[in-house]
Amino acid sequence: MPQRHSKNNNDLAFFTYDEKRKLGYGTQRERLGKDSIKPFDTCGLCLKPFIDPMCCQKGHAFCKECILECLLAQKKDMQRRQAALATQKKHEKEEEEERLALQKARELVEFDQQNHGAVPQYTDKNNYGKDKNGFHGANSVKATSFEEEALRTMKAFWLPSATPEAPVKVEAPSTSTVCPEGNEKLKLKSLFPIYLTEDRNETKKSNWVDKTYICPSCKVTLTNTLSLVALNTCGHVFCKTCAGKFLPADKSCLVCSKSCKERNLVPLEKGGTGFAGHDEKLEAKDFKHLGSGSGLGLVRPPTKT
């Protein structure tokens, strides 16, 4: 059976609803699967299993080498921006001094022309008492200033001397490093190492990539479905249930017996659980605007109907 004429008609000056739908117009929503969610035991920078993990006070964990390289790169970038800002200020100061010098020289020339403007400078009777522009005395100074102002304000891109300029201004850089995940201020001394209890069961695989970790208190396997808590005093990681039940009462770590308080508990951030009940953003959104000459509507191939 042939399709409707409205779906086959392609000589209109606008896109029909069916054409927009095939081109992927609008907001596309897709639920993220398990492969799109970062496991709890992977670095937030290299996305690989932890190697000497370090954690910030907000619960973001990274490999020690990765976070040190990140902080070092941020410091080098801040030094580069500071040098660029200093160079810009130096150029601005030199331009201001040059502008003041030119203005002072212009004022001297205008003063000299105003004082000697009444003296005849041409022997021709028709040009007696006039300058080369045809103005008398002090009026020549006014006409010259008008011409310079007009040339300075005229935006004629075909004249090299009157081409408008748009200098790039360097903003003052931040003086503190930030966490690559949480974007909060982060210092090297605020990081602390964390220690995960490995499952030593012989039936488990011994490959370091396939390591499984358990809670040292209840021996439950740690996954993204559990809320984890780390102690910033000793770095041991527990599930939230054990941390809320035993640590405030004993006021000491269950592994090393080091004293701790409730403020030493740091909830670890994770990449998601795959369940909507854990307040994680598990839905990806992508908006495509179908405009004239944008080409954004052709990103997604048309679907077959």
From TrEMBL:
The lineage of its organism: Eukaryota, Viridiplantae, Streptophyta, Embryophyta, Tracheophyta. InterPro entries: NOSIP, Znf-NOSIP, Znf_RING, Znf_RING/FYVE/PHD, Znf_RING_CS. The keyword Ion transport does not apply. SUPFAM superfamilies: RING/U-box (SSF57850). The keyword Magnesium does not apply. Its main location: nucleus. Keywords: Coiled coil, Metal-binding, Nucleus, Zinc, Zinc-finger. It is found in: Nucleus. It holds the Pfam family Rtf2. It comes from Kalanchoe fedtschenkoi (Lavender scallops). GO terms for cellular component: nucleus. This is RING-type domain-containing protein. Belongs to the NOSIP family. Residues 76-108 form a coiled coil. Residues 215-257 form the RING-type domain. GO terms for molecular function: ubiquitin protein ligase activity; zinc ion binding. Gene3D superfamilies: Zinc/RING finger domain, C3HC4 (zinc finger) (3.30.40.10).
